[in-house]
Amino acid sequence: MMSEQPRLVTRFKFYLAEKLFHSSVLKGSKLRHQWVMSMFKQAANEGHLKALSIYGHLLYFRGASPVDKGQGANYLLDAAKQGDAKAQYQIGCIYEQGYGHLQKNFENAVRWFVRAAEQGHPLACRKMITACENGDLGLAKNPEQVQYWQQKIHRTLKEASGINLTQSVT
Fold first, then answer.
1. What whole-number distance in Å separates Cα of residue 51 and Cα of residue 37?
2. Distance (Å, rounded) from C-alpha 49 to C-alpha 88?
3. What span, in angstroms and rounded, lies between the C-alpha atoms of 57 and 69?
4. Separation CA 152–CA 121 (nearest Å)
């Protein structure tokens, strides 16, 4: 029972932070922003996967300093390693451009784009289509791979729309 409690508290911290983050309550408040970021950070540090991804994204893409960006990249990398498709795509983008200790490396960028695309991340699929069409990211032009990623994105979108179509309205 003890090990269940921290996970419940962590999930609750993340839930509150996410709800307030997307809420219009106290929008623009510095105190609100600090509290939300604190809750995301706590949940991320306690291993909450979605918190790692969101907090990493916020620090990397909206951070005020190079230190924030570096920490954000670390949180994103942790989330990517744990299988978060959005974080995998973002880490691919970071490797594509290079930042700090994640130096520009097309091989690593492709590795992370592929991991995200295999999970159906649409931007990662598009990135792989473009790379295989144009020979970008150190890849050779490959029409078979273009077709593979086009089919992958088509299947993903079909499955997503199928979920909405099959839900019953009560």
1. 10
2. 12
3. 9
4. 10
Q: Which tokens belong to 157?
A: 């979108």
The answer to whether the CB of 83 falls within 8 A of the CB of 50 is no
Q: For residue 120, count CB atoms less than 10 angstroms from its CB and return exposed for 0-12, middle for 13-18, buried for 19 or more.
A: middle
Residue with structure tokens 């974080």? 87
From the list 94, 102, 155, 104, the residue with the least C-alpha distance to 127 is 94
pLDDT digits (tens, 9 = 90+) for 22-78: 888 778 889 988 999 999 999 999 999 999 999 999 999 998 899 999 999 999 999
End-to-end CA, the chain: 37
Distance CA 119, CA 39 (A): 28
Residue type, 86: K
Rounded to whole angstroms, the Cα distance separating 112 from 105 reads: 11
Return the half-sphere exposure (C-beta side, CA atoms, 13 A cut-off) of residue 30: 0
Q: Which residue in 134, 114, 132 sits closest to 124, CA to CA? A: 114
Nearest to 123 by CA among 162, 163, 161, 96: 96
| Domain locations along the chain | 48-166
pTM of the model: 0.85
Name the E strands within 16-160: none
CATH architecture classification, 48-166: Alpha Horseshoe (1.25)
Residue 8 in tokens? 């419940």
